[in-house]
Amino acid sequence: MTPDVNPTTTAEPLGRIEDEQTDVAAIHAPILTREKSEPQEGLEPAPFWFIPLIGVVLFWAGYYMGHYNGGFNPLVFDEKASGLPIIVSARPPGEVDMAVLGKRTFTAMCAPCHQETGLGLPNQFPPLAGSDWVNAAGHGRLVRIVLDGFTGPVEVNGKPFNNTMVPWRGTMSDEQIAAVLTYVRQAWGNKGAPVGVDHVKAVREKTKDRAGQPWTADLLRAQPEKE
Amino acid sequence: MNYGPIVFIGIFLTLASSWVGLILIPQIQYGGLGVQKIEETGRDYPAANFGSAALGREVYRANGCIYCHSQQVRAEDFGADIARGWGKRRSVSRDYLYDKPVFLGTMRTGPDLANIGLRQPSVEWHLSHLYNPQITSKGSIMPTYAFLFEKRKIGKASSPDALKLTGKLAPPSGYEIMPTEEAKNLIAYLLSLRVDVALPEGPLGK
Amino acid sequence: MKNSSPSLRQALNPSDDGNTAERKALLAEIDLSCRRPVLFLFANALLWLMAGTALALITSWKMHSPGFLADWSWLTFGRVRPAHLNTMVYGFASQAGIGVAIWLLCRLGRVPFMQGGIVLAATVLWNIGMTVGIIGILSGDSTSIEWLEMPGYAAYILFMAYALIAVWAIITFRFRREKHLYVSQWYLLGALFWFPWLYSAANMMLVIDPVRGTVQAAVNWWFGHNVLGLWFTPIGLGAIYYFIPKVIGRPIHSYFLSILGFWSLALFYNWAGMHHLIGGPMPAWLITVSIVASIMMIIPVVTVAINHHLTMVGHFKKLKYSPTLRFIVFGAMSYTVASLQGSSMAIRSLNKLTHFTHYTIAHSHIGLYAFFTMTMFGSMYYIVPRLALREWPSARLISIHFWAAAIGILLYVVPLSVGGVLQGRAMNNPDVPFIKTVELTKPYLITRSMSGIILTVAHVAFVVNFVWILARRRRPYEPPVDFIAAGLDPEVKANLTHEI
Prior knowledge:
The complex is a heterotrimer. Chain A is mainly alpha-helical. Among the domains of chain A are: about 50-80; about 100-220, Cytochrome c-like domain (Cytochrome Bc1 Complex, Chain D, domain 2, Orthogonal Bundle). Chain A contains seven helices and two strands. Chain A has a two-stranded antiparallel ribbon. In chain A, helix 3 (about 100-115) packs across helix 5, helix 4 packs across helix 6 (about 195-205) and helix 5 packs across helix 6. Chain A is elongated, with a radius of gyration of 38 Å. Chain B folds into two domains: about 1-30; about 40-190, Cytochrome Bc1 Complex, Chain D, domain 2, CATH 1.10.760.10. Chain B has helices spanning about 5-30, 50-60, 115-120, 125-130, 180-190; strands spanning about 35, 45, 150-155, 175-180. In chain B, a hairpin with a 6-residue loop joins strand 1 and strand 2 (about 45). Chain B is globular and about 80 Å long. Chain C has 17 helices and no strands. Chain C has a domain at about 20-180: Four Helix Bundle (Hemerythrin (Met), subunit A) (Up-down Bundle). In chain C, helix 6 (about 185-210) runs antiparallel to helix 7 and helix 10 runs antiparallel to helix 11 (about 325-345). By secondary structure, chain C is mainly α. Chains in contact: A-B, A-C, B-C. At the B-C interface, helix 1 and helix 2 of B face helix 2, helix 3, helix 6, helix 7 and helix 8 of C.
């Protein structure tokens, strides 16, 4: 990169390092003349605000540890508790906002197949928006489908589908089924009547003997609509 | 601080302290946690995966599903997991008793899967979604897993297991897309994921 | 230095004996003895850096274009992502760190490098283990245990390789000629001792004979967090504690702060691992203990920041010409930022928002890239000329490297952090469908890929310079390369006496 201007090197070309060990110090020294001395420890005092900062942190640590230790009990997962949780009974209906429950249940359990738009997937999952089945006068068929599922060929709005819907009897409560069916019947321009919790309870009881057997289109058409 | 042994003793004791505090003590406290008998069914909870689900667990591990999906439901007052319908209660230690390894996960590029067996029990949905997530979930960034499926010539009639694909995704005529054993096992594993049993330390609705 | 008696100062700095010629000869001998093992480690590290960068680009691209390379099981996201992490952590960062640690321990112990065969065997074994491990992950043998994805058969090889390094470190320490232990040596000895304990315990309890249930999660994150806190952080801090005072020619501000910083880090850092599990199925007390430790980390982090800053004060203009100092100071400041951010993320209310989001990924890259990798780059810029006995051929490439890396990492972490916060807020709102939380992150995933391209440019610039400096013929004395000198007249340049 530069002509050799440093007086400590020779002008002769340098060989490979293994051949000329004695050259090493001569080569290295110019590099090292520019190195500062090895790092050293200074003895300046720390800034004055540093000690109070440590004090504040330690105080906070003790407070937090004292308050949120859950009794050091390995079965306590809630840091605000000190012992095992008290079993609470199931919430009575009426405390839950059904509109919110319906939409959230739909998004979590139904939208993966029927889609957020309610349009379903062609040839696979039937639409709910504008569906003749959803907007039928009674609730009986819809509750049955949600409870025990559905299988086989069916026509929805004139389009054929042949698939299986899973049952939700064991997973959804009566409140959830009522809420989600009410949501489905009133979303995307649907103008169906809401479905009540007692309706669902009654159908669940009535059909408990055939639990686990999915419905087919023919079987459902044989059912009275309003029950 | 010139004395090597003192430095070494300090270095040793500091890591030893957390090894004792974060690993040894929890292991002593609840490393021996056992199953809980469920009164209604007489069964033990949790049950270890076996058969197809156990093999599916290995597919989940080999393909790194944990890098997008967590499997832990947070408490009702800590995030929106339960409100989203991802679980009926928060996850507790006992739920992972037999898991090797534990798939807690640390990212939610995709939804939490702790209760996917409850929330989405349709085998067909999972097969479509696994083959090409865009089919069921438009806008998803989950990759396609076509390598877990195979294209086969249709025999006398199309197989009941074959995917129902339409449009651009449909295979050429005379062929069908079938899930491999790995795909079927993976879905059996996913369908086994449910945390809906009430426990003394984890009551439902909390 | 005011307020200090000469005898105390002498006791702390026994090497300051003024005998420059002998000191220089010894340093020359030490540098020469380190040449082969350290350069071999650096070369391997840079190979893995390039592999890891390629894997990073692929991984990042897949997140916004999920169809990209999706048809091959070897390249599915869930395999390339851990391959990227392990390549960078164990292939690049660990080997660069070991190389820097070896050189520092030899220089600070004033003892030439001995037992070269041990380190050579270790390096070869390490890279065999890496290759076996990464192929294992890509072929489907990943353990799916974060930070420990390499299958057991590769972990054994890595551990054996490491054991040889540990043996070398013990021998070098035992035969050191300088009995006084400088602060960097405490950190390096800590790192070299802690890592094998962490690695063997974690592999035993998670891979070979797994413990039951969520105790696995406790072991997993005790390990994962301590790889950052007790392996990379001490190596990085050890390097910063050496290079800042070395390059500017002033002592470290306060010995007392050095001691406090080291021991508080050693005590608190390793208790903080459970903060990766806040909200998870772990006993409340375990999480609380780690949150407390995470906040206590403010003490060592502020201590070290004060120490480094007050050493640098008045010398910031040296950043204009010294490549080493630029990378090192960038790294030191990033350490403070990453650590304070990390402490804040351990607070439950913030964690509720950021856990499971891209914010965490951005944070991890501030720590591992902006802090550790930049520190390693700075260290290598200092060390390599002294081993190769040549100067860096191109100041322009160094400049490209620095600016591309700095801009790249900023472009990475700032947008992705914003995206992560938005993602967290949407996720905590149960009325926002999940797919929307994914859609809103897409622009930030794209900026991340763009930043990845810039970082690739930085790495290519460095690798080119590295190969070039080793390939050059040795010449008569050439002055050190620095950013200002590069633009100067050759006559003037030859007479520069500042060091870099």
